[in-house]
Amino acid sequence: MTLEWTLFALACAVVAALVAWTHPGRGRGLAWGPVGAVTGALVLAAGVGWVWQSGRTAVAVREAAFRPKVPRETPHSGYVSSDQCASCHPGPHQSWHDSFHRRMTQKATPEAVLGDFDHREFTVDGHPIRLERRGDEFWAEMVDPDWTHDQARARAGWKGFRVEDPARAPRVWKRVGMTTGSHNFQAYWVPGRHGNLQFSLPMAWLVEEKRWIPRKDTFIRDPEAPSPNQIWNINCIQCHVTGGVPGRDPRSGLIESRVGEMGISCEACHGPGEAHVQAHRNPLRRYLRHLGAREADPTIVNPARLGPRASTQVCGQCHGVKFVHGFDEYLQAGFSYRPGGEMEPATPLLRHPGFRDPKGIPPEITGDPQAMDNIFWPDGMIRVTGREYSGLHESACHLKGGMTCLSCHSMHDAPPDDQLRRDRIGDQACLQCHPSIAANPTAHTHHAAGSSGSACYACHMPHATYGLLKAVRNHYIDSPSAQSTLETGRPNACNLCHLDQTLEWTARHLAAWTGKPAPALPAEHRTVSLAALLMTRGDVAQRALVAANAAHPEARAVSGTGVLVPHLVELLDDPYPAVREIAARSLRSMPEFREVSSVSMGEEAGRRQFRAGIEARWKPAAPGALGAAALLGADGRLDRARHAEVLRRRDPRVMDLIE
Q1: Rounded-to-5 percentages of helix, strand, coil across the chain
Q2: Domain ranges across the chain
Q3: Are the CB atoms for 180 and 240 separated by under 8 Å?
Q4: Which residues on adjacent β-strands are paired with residue 133?
Q5: Which of the chain's termini has less CB crowding within 10 Å, N or C?
Q6: Per residue in 163-193, pLDDT tens?
Q7: Is 649 helix (H, G, I), strand (E, B) or coil?
């Protein structure tokens, strides 16, 4: 109730009391007369007003309590938002607007939310989760994430926190406030009690399959570990918005984050635009620039006009594995890097100690073998996706040839799926620097012209990095090597396409083509296909990569499905949910299995149902000469004895790949 209504009600009550006291009917019952009637009406009106206003206030309080508090989207540090760009740059603005970068982080509106919240129920880590849509709002009933966060502090020994019984974990309804992603899968965030902390919803929506899975199952991480209670404001804000500032108060620890703009917008690549907008309010200057000024505009950054190092760092600020110097300062003020500047002083690239000089990165990071294995292959090549700058940065094409991200990609002249420039699709991306190969491509590729094996990137940028439940092209540009596979365990381009062949077969062909001697190989690499070995005894990253490559039509056309299906079916029971999901995807990509229902591989009943559907439709044929190399028997099914022998030597390492 407002102060005005309170004073009015009190005044009416005083007037009514005076009238009742002075009226002649006093002492002879209720006889108010005209004055009393008017006063009574005023009192009644005040009462009705009080009830009405109280109701409005209560509703407002409830709405304020349920309205999700998200990081403030506000101009700061020169950021003015992409809205200021549209009027002068409608074409580039529209092409960016159509991109997945723009939709990386969004407020949870009906237009942004892809997941089905219509009364869905799940169980994750033994706790039920209920999802509901209420009009234009999206709600989740779950274990209180603030309680989970406090429990993590208690287990870490923080003062003032005590470990409590998980069975008595409090439950709350939370309204979803933000989304992350819209291309492969979409994650969701709910607000915490303090500041504008955002905690992860334990479920994620697979965009292509149109179904929910536990969010932890979208990553390769310890399958025995519970769902992480991720905080968006600490990590995701680094790359998934423009001008993100965590905003941690150094005294209270309270976090009040702010962003220049949700999503990855114009200013993420071109730098803060305030000076540019101010300078071009002058129409004469604006039109002169549009008529074709040749010199760079000093008020804004154009990555295409930067040198190779500065240009790649514009993308590398997000697409690289970085180490943050001065983490406390970052939590308060965000990153100091701006496009066109130098990234390394505040956020140097994290390098494998065996590959290049780590440049002052603390030994507790580079000296942790397990942490390094979660990011790099043993020779220092990046093994996770989203970190393409870390690969390109070490490539001769960049170091010696001046190749940049913009040599192949564009935010304004490319399909949104891979942002590959329209004039760089196919071999054109490579032939712009290697035109001599175009005259006689088969002499270089040793494959028929126009075949998948003749594509430059098929051999020099194979799908050898992992992330987002799939294999992604490696951006460390090199040539296939059997020796490298033997030393690092990283599958090479030849064996990722010829999934039915041994490493010895690859070594023999490469030796014939290059004139270099083939390496000495152990017996298993002479008798068992590399794909069968890695899907059976490989570590989880190897199993995931090979299983994902089995979905590629080129690989299936070369290898045939007969040598792949038995191994993919076995991976439906892999200890890691992500591997199970990938194996199911690869099976569903085959025409004969497309009608098998899409179910979650996180539940045993779903796996049994899916596996039964595959086996009912699969008609194994005689495998031919390559059957033994694929660990198959004469009937086209797994040779159980040989398979078990290889399986006993599986790499048991627990891995948490840092995508």
Answers
A1: 40, 10, 45
A2: 3-66, 479-659
A3: yes
A4: 138
A5: N
A6: 999 999 999 999 999 999 999 999 999 999 9
A7: coil
